[in-house]
Amino acid sequence: MLRRLARLTSSLAPVATLLVAPAAFAQEAPAATASAPAEPEELRVVGVKEAQTGGSVHTVSDKQLKRFGYDDPHQVFLGVPGVYVRGEDGMGLRPNIGMRGANSDRSKKITLMEDGVLFGPAPYSAPAAYYFPLIGRMRSVRVLKGPSSVIYGPQTVGGAIDLLTRDVPQGRSGFAELAFGQYAFRKVSAGVGGGDERGGFWFDGEHLANDGFKTIDGDPQANTGFSRTEVMTKAERVVDPDAAIRQTFAVKLGYSTERSNETYVGLTDADFRANAYRRYAASAMDRMSWYRTQVQVSHKVEFSKNFDLTTTVYRHDLDRSWRKLNRTDQVGVADVLNDPTSSRNRQLYGVLTGAVDSQGTSDTLYVGPNDRTFVSQGIQTHIRWKVKQGSIQHQFLYGLRFHHDSIDRKHTEDAFVMRGGKLVASAAPTLTTADNRDSTDAASGFVQDTLTVGRLVVTPGIRVEAIHGRREDRLAGVTSGGRSVTAIPGVGGYLAVVREKKQELGAVLGAHRGFSPAPPSATGVTTPETSWNFEAGARYTRRAFRAEILGFYNAYQNLTSLCGFSSGCTGGTVDRQFDAGKARVFGLEAFADGSWKLGRDLSVPARISYTYTRTEFLEDFSSGDPQFGRVLAGFEMPYIPRHQISGNVGLEHRRFAVNVAGTYVDKTREIAGDGPLQPSLTTDAYFLLDASAKLILSEHWELSLNARNLLDETYIASRRPFGARPGAPRWMQAGVRATF
């Protein structure tokens, strides 16, 4: 691995040269002065206030996360403009998140981080996010789009998400939370920590579980829910708090596990309209199990208040096994559910539901554990250097990352037949359908300078990705792979047109190159996804109020899709990349967030976001990805709503709080097409109304009541992978929280 990384690093020599340069100025840095007062870390992007960045940046603060206490990350991201989600299990176990037209399938096309470190199981080799941290453990969430996301990679087409965990506290603090609700919902969450100027620790954990809201044919008492547990500990040590050069060592350890009774099998449209929360008997054995370990060690050197260097070494391991119904003997499950009444599919549909017994090999069901082992490890270094040259304030950011990840797949299937509404093992031998390993060595670096001159902030930057991917197919006895080097430039600008003591109105402009690497199986065979992305708009801030409106335009040179089970792919198309050629995505994002005082102890928080999006393929092509199929120029992309709006308003007092949130998502195509939307090929438009009430008993105790989907909206969130799938029904939850 080290030799391969050394060869890749040679392509980053210019970046390395720039990285070394600030050391020569380390002694001059103390003379520089900051142009703005200190801000909380989550309000800072590339050294300036979030409201003054030349790019789209949104922070969901700790207070906002606690307001509704969402456990489904989809509900958190629906409140951010330019972000789309595709529901699958109704609980957000494996989120499907997209940005500005980037494909939402398994969040493959966005960069996912926790505390600035990639957390995907294998971000380069297999970017599908089968793991996503429990959102309830986070203190804030940052969403970056446009040129603001260039310094984060490898995915830069849509943007980046950074989940920020709780910091080591100063002094002693902690909390404990207990909640229960419908469908045997239970949640136990706790944290404790302490620290001083020499360091400290923080430990937290969360257990989240329910018995599910679906009912399996023939077994109405079956558990269709999940159980998840995550624990994390952090520790920090300052070598000498009074030293001229301050050094801090930190370690972060984590363990996560899940057992979920989830399936890829949905329903026919007719069955969905009759009972959206039904599951067929053929899915009774479906279950996902995984565990994950996390180790991170970091060292930060603060040469002065204007110059510091942070280095982090990390390793994440994930082992997962998903035993589920994959296919029938001759016809795909999705094909059966799309056309259950044809002469070919009628018998198979009956077998899936358990209404009729299997008659022969043609209606044999294949259930198999998709065993996968992931490794993600590396070392990354960031340098921040602030200096003032005349009237120009610079803040330089330099970064290098050497990363390795891999995925080992061992997929097998066992044959089952339906007897009396139950699955019965067949005598047929176990089939091995996949036995392969994908791995990637990547060296990346970036340089970015934030220049502040009076009312103008300009942020040019460039990222370089040097990638070596390799695939070993043990069944075929074939090894393949290749190398690529890509430069990803970007620039953002902000101009304060009006700047007064209490308010500011500014113009925002940005452009950057979008990039999504090809997986190891496609490296050297197909090209990576690339685009040129532009945004422009205005931003207004006044005290605790912020509003902005941005237009965006993404011009794809080559749009790609990485086929997976989650997108409905089967057989030889799984894990293959398909190119879609030139395309364009354009739209509008509008956002406003503020809080108004009605008295000494009473305030009204409010927040609203709106996204309008149009998409268009510019070339004819045929794809093995079922989301595309046969495409003609002018077709629209799947799973991108034209209109999406989300908002919340509340009344908060030092003794109570009441908040209401509403989200409307337009219907979307499920396969590329044009003309009027066909009901059988689109999701349902839906409106979700959520409510939260809190009674604050004292400084340390509070009671909460949360209602999800208060109107009990029933809607088709997706027909992928196989058949119609609902969002969650009305769900009431109550809890108690203690802090100290």
Explain what the structure shows.
The protein has 740 residues and is mainly beta. It is built from seven helices and 38 strands. It has a 22-stranded antiparallel β-barrel. The chain has a five-stranded mixed β-sheet with strand order 3-8-9-6-7.
What share of residues are in beta strands? over 45%
State Rg: 26 Å
Approximate helicity band: under 10%
User: How many individual domains?
Assistant: 1
Predict the CATH topology: Maltoporin, Chain A
Overall pLDDT confidence? 90
Largest sheet geometry: 22 strands, antiparallel, barrel
What's the CATH class label? Mainly Beta
CATH superfamily: TonB-dependent receptor, beta-barrel domain
Distance between the termini: 47 Å
CATH 2nd-level architecture: Beta Barrel
Total helices: the number is: 7
Q: In terms of per-residue confidence, which ranges show pLDDT below 50 for 5 or more consecutive residues?
A: 1-47
Task: Specify the structural class.
Answer: mainly beta
Beta-strand segment tally: 38
List the main descriptive attributes of the protein structure presented here.
740 residues; mainly beta; Maltoporin, Chain A; 22-stranded antiparallel β-barrel; 5-stranded mixed beta sheet; 55% strand; globular
